[in-house]
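Q: I'm writing a short methods note and want an example of a predicted protein-small molecule complex. Could you take the sequence and the SMILES for S-adenosylmethionine and return the bound structure as tokens? Please keep the output block clean; save any remarks for afterwards.
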Amino acid sequence: MAEDHFGERVAERYDAGEAEMFDPAVVEPIVDFLAEQAGDGAALELGIGTGRIALPLAQRGVRVHGIDLSEAMVARLRAKPGAEGIDVTIGDFATTRVEGTFSLAYLVFNTIGNLTTQDEQVACFQNVAAHLEPGGRFVIETGVPGVQRLARGETFRLFDVSETHVGIDEYDLANQGLVSHHYNLRPDGSFVRSSLPLRFVWPAELDLMARLAGMALLERWSGWKREPFTSDSAKHVSVWEKKA
Ligand SMILES: C[S@@+](CC[C@H](N)C(=O)[O-])C[C@H]1O[C@@H](n2cnc3c(N)ncnc32)[C@H](O)[C@@H]1O
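A: Understood, no commentary inside the block.
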């Protein structure tokens, strides 16, 4: 079972700490895209968290089922209006099975990287395929590995500096590993550190995982408004289709 890095201490400040990710200008294009992919079917969110995407998607009339490891994150979701219409299963999304079939499964906000081994990421694609109807879609939003920005021999990259947050990624190139260190300002003026282990993965490797699971790439964009994916893109939104 994967380790839960989103316990009470993270969950209690997740929505406030990620406030810009809850901005309707960020959320609405994601929900538009996912609602279109779901069509008339149901959606499965892997790593549903506090419901940033699931709640507005359910408000659009899409039936959403979520999987998450963190009781603390899901408790925040359950306390929000509209959550009563969303089923959540506590478990590891690489292996947990839920009832029903889905026209859409989605995994946003770099969360594929929370599976820190290739085996777990491969298992995740296979688990998704087992839940999808033929022709169903799997959507992932994740960063393109930022290794181009590292000078040769360097392992640390500063990715955010503000009054309240400092973020530093620590790369382990040989093992395709990354630890994302976050220093967050507390009300007493001190900074608290949390460090999240991740596995960075290239789009082509994800395509191969999809193929192993009986899916094929349908679309790849650099953003939710279907911005072109190019050599300069820092992230991608990819859609794979389960073969009929
Ligand atoms: C960055 S948060 C994203 C939450 C939500 N999808 C969003 O966009 O705000 C990642 C979520 O995935 C969950 N998670 C990470 N690894 C997981 C795993 N292996 N199985 C189930 N949930 C996992 C965490 O508990 C957390 O709630």
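A: Remarks, as requested: The longest strand covers residues 132-143. The mean pLDDT is 96.
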